[in-house]
Amino acid sequence: MEEKNKKSQILIKVCCVIAAFILWLYIFNVENPITERKIVVPVTIVNKDVLAQSKLVQVGNDQFNISLVIKGNASDVYSVKSSDFQLNSDLSSYVMKRGENNIPVTVKKSPDNISIANNENLWIKIQLDELKKKSIPIKVTLTGKPKEGYYALDPVLKMEKAEISGAQDSVNAVKYAVAVYDVKYAQNDINTTVSLQPQDASGNLIKNVEINPAAVKITVPVGKIKTVPVNVKIQGNSASGEVTSSITAVPDKIDISGNESVIKNISGIDTEPIDLSKIGDASNVQVKLVVPKGVKLINNNGIVQLKISSGTVKTDGESQKQLNLNIQIRNLNDSYTAKLSSSSASIVVSGSDSIVNNLNADSIACFVDTSSMSEGVQSANVVVSLPQGLSLVSQSPQNVNIDIRQKTAEDQNGN
């Protein structure tokens, strides 16, 4: 009996739901009563170019929306969409001023079977600021690392400044127009166009600012890394008439990079001359490096430490010596042969008597570097690398012609 009552109650509830649904359908489709509804519609700002004429600019680029109260038959009210309406705010019809401006909204299009209850009270608030322009420097920021054994040198820009415009506060915050480029795995010079970003002094991106030009052409030279010794240059004598027995640079070798035609002739980096009469009893002295034009130091700020030993030796006089050296050919590709127009060079060196008197040709390197040369006859620099304590007075010849040819089968068989 109890189970029968439960089934009856469920049946009654189902019948009530069906009856209510039928009644709703009747009212909505037959009676179709008048009803109201709120709908959010975007507003289009027209004639914004008048702001620039008044030296004003909109603060932010937010989309403006208006809440419309629409009225009509229920079937019509609930079937319309925001795209069925067109709302405009015309900036050319009103005098604009810096700060907050209330601009009326005009209904340009709406469905015929719908009325707008709040049609007479449609406004938007637009914030304006003084339009400002200024010129800012362009800065290139390189990210990533080139291929191992290569180094990205200082970028070269086609132009140095860009112009920005926008709201006064935003423009005042911008310090640089920054071009960011990733040089990861690069092994050749890079020529590309990079977009510019307005940034403040802390590297933060400043929004709502226009930048002209929007992009800039840059060239990033990528050079090979070469390790060369540091040559310590000294002059003068100690106050007691003696000189230190040993001066060592720390580090004694340094990595450099640059255009291959430049660094191939660099056999060492000299320090600025250090005057022994001014260092007293110091055991460590900082000295600047003399960096040739077109050469970039890698992981070094251009300063090395000189470690000076405590032992001393008596000073002696200066003398010169003439030597004839055989010119060697270095870094020649195994598949080539090379012939020099002159196989020897005559040099004159100067230094202290003790060094010059014990000097022989075997302690001086004299060579032509062919690592970057191709097949054919070409001019090459004769590189003379002297031991520490000597300086080159004269050299003849300084250049020789070298004839590089592909090896023949006879040359290979002879080898």
Topology of this protein?
Layout: H1 2-31, E1 34-46, H2 49-53, E2 56-58, E3 64-73, H3 74-77, E4 86-90, E5 99-104, E6 106-109, E7 115-116, E8 123-143, E9 150-152, E10 156-157, E11 161-167, H4 168-173, E12 176-182, E13 190-199, E14 209-212, E15 215-220, E16 222-231, E17 234-235, E18 242-244, E19 247-250, E20 253-258, H5 260-263, E21 269-271, E22 274-275, E23 284-290, E24 295-298, E25 303-308, E26 312-314, E27 318-326, E28 328-330, E29 336-340, E30 344-352, H6 353-357, E31 365-369, E32 376-381, E33 383-385, E34 391-396, E35 399-406, H7 409-414
Parallel strand pairs: 1-4, 8-12, 16-21, 17-22, 28-31
Antiparallel strand pairs: 1-3, 2-8, 3-7, 4-6, 5-8, 8-11, 9-16, 10-15, 11-14, 12-13, 13-15, 16-20, 18-26, 19-25, 20-24, 21-23, 23-25, 27-30, 29-35, 30-34, 31-33, 32-35
Transmembrane segments: 10-28
Pfam families: YbbR
Keywords: Membrane, Transmembrane, Transmembrane helix
